[in-house]
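Board notes (copied after class):
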Amino acid sequence: MTRVLAVGSEIFPLLKTGGLADVMGALPQALKAAGVQATTVVPGYPAILSGLRNATAIYHFPDLFGGPAEVLRANAASLDLLVIDAPHLFARQGNPYLGPDGKEWPDNGIRFAGLSAAAAAIGVGLVPGLSFDIVHAHDWQAALTPVYLAFHHGRRPGTVLTVHNLAFQGLYPATLFPRLGLPDSAFAMDGLEYHRHVSFLKGGLAMADRLTTVSPTYAREITGEDNGMGLDGVLRHRADVLSGILNGIDDSVWNPATDDLIPNRYFRGRLGPRAANKTALQQRLGLQESPGSLVIGVISRLTSQKGLDMLLDQIPFLLANDVQIALLGSGEPALEEAFTDAAAQHPGAVGCVIGYNEPLAHLIQAGSDALLVPSRFEPCGLTQLCALRYGAIPVVARVGGLADSIIDANEAALTAGVATGIQFWPVEPLALYEALRRMISLWRNQPVWQRMQRNAMATDVSWRGPAAHYTGLYESLMAGRA
């Protein structure tokens, strides 16, 4: 049995700020079902420590980047965890990356170097009785793990780095480098050095044995200048070890037939109760209770990446066509204010909740007729996968994982009866307008719309397929190192 040690900075259901946590929580379960023994290293934030069961200290670091630390072995939500309990690094309430002022903790570089160094030490057998074939690091917070392992003298496990969003790179002044405990040769063009700064992500991209990202299209996009975020040269150089594996979702959590967070359960063969969820959603967000209105949901970070500034300009057109908007999200203050103002200016037609609320996210999926994801770039996206599962027709930009997961309702797909959503390109206001116009036209033909819903709900968005791809990647890597 292949033994994998995953490393990440958050994990659902213990602590979540974004899609990374969903992957960290769901992928190990799917790997176990595929015959892989998966253990996950996470930081000992208060939220994680409070959710542990049967925690046992199995190793002591006298000094992990400025203070002592314990490795706790524990179980939570059927996950096998190794938790780095280092109070000087992780004993901070709230967002794991941001202080009370909303800015990054000034010592984030040291904090996540500590996570990576501890994981690397565990990976090479520092803890008696634990050994691993593969160490799989996720995103910049864990990207130094394959770097530390690359400089380990002696036998080491194979390393994989998965990039969930290339825009976040862990970039720090060069003055941090001497504190990382790496040899001088690591601060070089083919290592961590990036324009005289230290880039955690670049180091991992340069030194991991295999690289993956979270969709095939995004894997192609990031090797070009437009989406490479300054690292396209590194990625082109390592293109032979780069692959894209589309994320899944936990289809036991996101299942309209069993979901305790929605008022009325339903399934593909019985869509009738879905109408009552729409009414509940309209009531929850102060929208007019109108069964015939098309409700379009948005569950998103409110940032320029997500393209939601373009939605603001489309509100008059949507309202003129009896379309309501149900939005849940937070992010850039200007966008938060703009959508809050839109809700105030159009009561009964625009509903807006700033923040994140897991039950409301489920209700939006179960009660919206369509779900909008107009991202300018999107490594994978999870909300459109949930929308497929819940029969909310995704309206998406043709980028990254959105392109890979939605079958556009073009004439050929409609004739063949396989369409599951609507794609648009380029990511510009006129193309979005045309996609929304197509959405309204399809909505007015309810037999076609309902067939799209059933197609969407028949789509396999689980982790079973992705887990098989990861298992094949691990086996290939192990065979190449034998």
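Comment from the instructor: The domain at 2-248+464-481 is CATH 3.40.50.2000 (Rossmann fold). The mean pLDDT is 97.
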